[in-house]
Amino acid sequence: MVVNWEAINAIAQAAGAIGVILSLLYLAAQVREDARSRRAATVHEQVATHANGLHTIATDGALAELFFRGIQDLEGLNGTERARFSAMLGYLFLNFEDSFYQHAEKRLDERVWHGIATPLGDLLAYPGVRAWWKTRAHHYNTDFQTFVEARIAEEKKPGLYPERLVTRVAPAGPSAA
Q: For residues 112 and 141, which has the higher predicted lDDT (pLDDT)?
């Protein structure tokens, strides 16, 4: 019996090549799945962060009143109120900026980005928010500043809340007189 070592070698090399190809296909599938999982985690994190900010405003009556008055008239707030309002918007805008960059890096789905960018545009229609932005824009990256300035330039009319239906309550504390 004559053994054809060249044929055996060719078969072994072909089997090795098939093994490498299968390994590469498996690796590509794993990388795709990992990327999909990371994007899903980013979406979850972004939505949860925005929801947390809104939940805080929604469940604290005094904060909700301050928010409502502040978005309409920043100058009408006293020093403490202005500091609280500024911190509240700072929190929201840091979240908006993070979402902006997650979207730019393609880690945030277009549908989710729409659900974040649209409320930002609605918020930017209010004079109190625009006045606040003028004092804080320099805290944010220039790309995000450009994005926000473009939304402001759209001159959208305030309409996030049905203002005509909201009864304004006098603020509590020393400024209420």
A: 141
What's the token pair of residue 20?
A: 């490498």
CA distance 148 to 133: 9
For residues 66 and 92, give the distance between their C-alpha atoms in angstroms, rounded to a whole number: 15
What pLDDT does residue 79 have?
A: 92
The sign of the CA dihedral 117, 119, 121, 124 is: negative
For the CA atoms of the chain, what is the radius of gyration? 27
- How do residues 60-69 score in pLDDT, each as one tens digit? 889 989 999 9
CA 90 vs CA 7, 13, 26, 137: distances in Å = 71, 62, 44, 10
Cα angle 144, 80, 83 (rounded to 5 degrees) comes to 10
- The pLDDT-based confidence of 175 (bands split at 50, 70, 90) is very low
CA distance to 17, 113, 127, 151, per residue, from 155 (Å): 62, 21, 11, 8
Q: What is the distance between the alpha carbons of residues 92 and 103, in angstroms, rounded to a whole number?
A: 16
72-101 CB burial, b ≥16 within 10 A, e <16: bebeebeeebbebbbebbeebbebbbbbbe
